[in-house]
Design brief:
about 100 residues; alpha+beta; two-stranded antiparallel sheet
Length: about 100
């Protein structure tokens, strides 16, 4: 889905949740969207709950890297807030160096 429509859809879900006072359960694979719109997050690995809590308590580079078996870093972005970025590792790093 294009970025604009992703944002529009997330805004609509938040608006409906607030207007109707309902619980919304979503499965999102975009961590930044999940952390931006959720009140509670469940981190799941291989079908098992790793940890659950507020976005603020789960925005941890080590925790997310371990959960997803991939290096990530939580950074502060001006005018946005905390953001999860993927870090190149192993073969990806070697491939990036070849391109530069």
């Amino acid at each position: 889905m294009d970025i604009r429509y992703q944002v529009d859809l997330m805004n609509l879900v938040v608006q409906l949740q607030q207007e109707k006072q309902i619980a919304v359960i979503m499965v999102l694979h975009d961590m930044n969207q999940a952390f931006r719109v959720s009140h509670r997050i469940w981190l799941i690995k291989a079908g098992q709950l790793v940890k659950q809590g507020s976005p603020e308590t789960l925005l941890d580079s080590a925790l997310l890297s371990q959960t997803f078996d991939f290096p990530v870093r939580v950074v502060d972005v001006a005018d946005y807030g905390r953001y999860v970025i993927q870090m190149p590792s192993g073969q990806e790093t070697d491939n990036l160096r070849k391109l530069i």
